[in-house]
Structures are given as structure tokens and as C-alpha cells.
């Protein structure tokens, strides 16, 4: 599958895209644990069906020490016993924030309250930005076919 458009080719748009992508680096510096960030990025990408992003975040999480069992169970996190309560809260916010078209209220008050129990304001802000960022990146990849799945090497975009 060939890319439909090179988002970095236009000087103006390319500059905006580079700034946008640099947001991911800033998120890594937040108080939201990096392992939670990878699980959230993976789950959002699974929901959106973005194969390149699933490839990236599965491999990045594994390279950072995430177990294959947990990676295999992200899609079934509600039923799996391998996730902590704080990870569950983040995954719930990520799912509800991604499936906004499926639920009139978006992220429920109950889901938000569970997240507030586990994360400070900085981590919550990072979580919200990460969910929005991943949804945007997924859509950009799906629309323009910037990347294909399978060839990503951990650290490739760092």
C-alpha cells in the first residue's frame, strides 16, 4: 500500500506536522507513566483500526519491558486480571474518549472519577492530550496511508 500524501512535503504543513509530532515527546516527560501511555496508545489504535500505530505501540511497549501477555490482553482489559486499577482507569477514559460517537456523554463522570483517584492533574492532562493525539494520528495514518504495519523498529521515530 502506497502513501496517498506526504504530510511532511509541504514546508508550511510539514512544519505544523513536525510540531504536532513533537507533542508526543513532551507527553513522555509527563507524570503519566510511560507504560500506561503505551497501553493507552495501543488501545486507541486498536479501536480505530490503525494497523501502523498498533505495530508501533506494541513494539515500543515490548522494547520498554511490557510483557507479551499484557499486550495480548489490552483489547480485553476489562476481563483481564493483569492490569492495575490505575491502568484500568486510564484505559477506560481512553476507550470512552475514543468512542465519543458511540456514547452521547463521551467520558462518563464515573470513569473520570476513577481516573481522578489514581492520577494527579498533570497526569490527567497528559492522558486527555494523549487520547486526542492518538485519535488524530490514527486518522491521519488511515486517511493518507503514511505508514504500513509490520516494518517498524523500536525507537525509529525518536
TrEMBL record:
GO terms for molecular function: peroxiredoxin activity. Keywords: Oxidoreductase, Peroxidase. This is Alkylhydroperoxidase AhpD family core domain-containing protein. The keyword Lipid metabolism does not apply. Pfam families: CMD (PF02627). The keyword Oxidoreductase applies. PANTHER family: 4-CARBOXYMUCONOLACTONE DECARBOXYLASE FAMILY PROTEIN (AFU_ORTHOLOGUE AFUA_6G11590), BLL7811 PROTEIN. InterPro entries: AhpD-like, AhpD_core, CMD-like. Residues 23-96 form the Carboxymuconolactone decarboxylase-like domain.
Amino acid at each position: 500500500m502506497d502513501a496517498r500524501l506526504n504530510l511532511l512535503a509541504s514546508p508550511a504543513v510539514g512544519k505544523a506536522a513536525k510540531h504536532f509530532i513533537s507533542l508526543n515527546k513532551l507527553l513522555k516527560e509527563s507524570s503519566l507513566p510511560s507504560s500506561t501511555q503505551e497501553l493507552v496508545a495501543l488501545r486507541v489504535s486498536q479501536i480505530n483500526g490503525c494497523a501502523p500505530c498498533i505495530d508501533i505501540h506494541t513494539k515500543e511497549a515490548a522494547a520498554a519491558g511490557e510483557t507479551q501477555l499484557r499486550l495480548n490482553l489490552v483489547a480485553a482489559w476489562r476481563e483481564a486480571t493483569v492490569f492495575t486499577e490505575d491502568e484500568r482507569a486510564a484505559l477506560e477514559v481512553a476507550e470512552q474518549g475514543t468512542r465519543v460517537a458511540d456514547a452521547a456523554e463521551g467520558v462518563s463522570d464515573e470513569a473520570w472519577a476513577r481516573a481522578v483517584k489514581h492520577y494527579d492533574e498533570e497526569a490527567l492532562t497528559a492522558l486527555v492530550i494523549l487520547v486526542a493525539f492518538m485519535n488524530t494520528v490514527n486518522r491521519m495514518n488511515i486517511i493518507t496511508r503514511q505508514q504500513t504495519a509490520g516494518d517498524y523498529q523500536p525507537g525509529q521515530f525518536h
